[in-house]
What we know:
- By secondary structure, the chain is of the alpha/beta class.
- It has helices at residues 21-37, 51-58, 78-92, 103-116, 226-235, 244-248, 279-282, 302-305, 314-329, and strands at 7-10, 41-47, 64-69, 96-100, 120-124, 126-130, 133-140, 145-150, 157-161, 179-180, 212-216, 239-242, 269-273, 290-295, 308-311.
- The strands form 3 sheets. A 7-stranded parallel sheet has the order 5-9-4-1-2-3-10, sandwiched between helices. Strands 12-11-13-14-15 form a 5-stranded parallel sheet.
- Helix 2 (51-58) links the parallel strand 2 (41-47) and strand 3 (64-69).
Amino acid sequence: MAEQNGVLVVGEVGGDGAPRPVSFEVLAAGRRVADALGQPLTVLLMGSGVADPARELGAAGADRVLVADDDRLTALTVEAASAVLIEAIEAVRPAVVLVPGTTAGRDYAPRVAARLQVGVAADCVDLTVEDGTLVAVRPVIGGRVQVAVRLPGSRPQIATVRPGSFDRATADGTSPEPEALAVDLGPDDLRVVVRETRPAETGPANLEAAQTIVSGGRGLKEPDNFKLVEELAGVLDAAVGATRAVVDAGWRPHHEQIGQTGRTVSPRLYIAVGISGAVQHNVGMQGSDYIVAINRDPDAPIFKIAAFGIVGDLFEVVPAVTAELRDALGK
Length: 331
Ligand SMILES: Cc1cc2nc3c(=O)[nH]c(=O)nc-3n(C[C@H](O)[C@H](O)[C@H](O)COP(=O)(O)OP(=O)(O)OC[C@H]3O[C@@H](n4cnc5c(N)ncnc54)[C@H](O)[C@@H]3O)c2cc1C
């Protein structure tokens, strides 16, 4: 690809028809990279009836908005998403392409990279530009180490962005008028047909959107004691999370699991109760603004990432904190 034209970021819409929060994070990442390159930022939205959410994304700092709006993209399959993204890349000729590191994005980004015979940096938590080249930072070995990846021979340079890694761009500007991207899908792009979609059993709380999360670990000793976590969460209008140890033990449902093999969250406040702070847990919550840890072991690794730590027996500390907060908040 000869001429290079800025950064192309891909947004996603949720089941409610609004842009997913991660779209604003990828947009913020794209803005930063585009500014460092001194080149424009284009946002692409694919789906059916997505002009309005595309404008919302455009108002959050994009220079150009592309919309692939087609009924055949209602249930966006990985084949169709790959085909449309390749068309957008051919139309924009970007130097850098950023894709949300969601289930879908993690699926189609490498396919697109393979078809274009370029590299992909997956699951990035930071992005900078050095000497006009993207430098993508990604955790490896379960988050113990971070590596900086360059894709020097790749044009475009493709990266997926881990949700929760960037502050969200805010939609307080004026959107450029969305431009229609011609959607040309062949039989191979449409061979998977989605006949029905059902909501996942994600439980009452949307952990990714929660501003406050109270999570419990094996320190609670037995499932019934999770009521301590639920009571504290209730007073704070918080969602409840859990470690894999307690999910594997059958104490809590899998949709509450936070970490490498669970969900990635970035609330304003994350309270970890009886959680040791294993790297596999921490990678799912270390993007939280403010982490509070309650653990009786002063050497527990969770204290290394906590802004505020209480060393003590959770069976004493949690009821006391809950009672104080109940009084203070008048609940
Ligand atoms: C491939 C892989 C993927 C993984 N994915 C995930 C994942 O997605 N999410 C995840 O959470 N884990 C994951 N794990 C597991 C992870 O390595 C840890 O085993 C797990 O997070 C530990 O959970 P825990 O903190 O509840 O338990 P523990 O490590 O047993 O910690 C319990 C803590 O409670 C404290 N405690 C005990 N009693 C009290 C008390 N009375 N008062 C106060 N504190 C007390 C202890 O001091 C201890 O620190 C994964 C592991 C692997 C190998």
